[in-house]
């Protein structure tokens, strides 16, 4: 909420964020707060692993970490 307030004060109309496909808690958290899925970046984590090879193949919840999802919220 504070980030959204700060954006509104600066007349920013939209917030965008990216999370990975395995982060089901973040996906639920943001969607409950009005964020919508906007775009899927297929195999984006494979590219990220080239720069940061320590990114695991599987999350703690055993979901393969592969893609990134862009979530967007329009501010009023």
From TrEMBL:
Residues 1-56 form the N-acetyltransferase domain. InterPro entries: Acyl_CoA_acyltransferase (IPR016181), GNAT_dom (IPR000182). It holds the Pfam family Acetyltransf_1. SUPFAM superfamilies: Acyl-CoA N-acyltransferases (Nat) (SSF55729). It comes from the Bacteria. Keywords: Transferase. GO terms for molecular function: acyltransferase activity, transferring groups other than amino-acyl groups. This is GNAT family N-acetyltransferase. It comes from Escherichia coli. The lineage of its organism: Bacteria, Pseudomonadati, Pseudomonadota, Gammaproteobacteria, Enterobacterales.
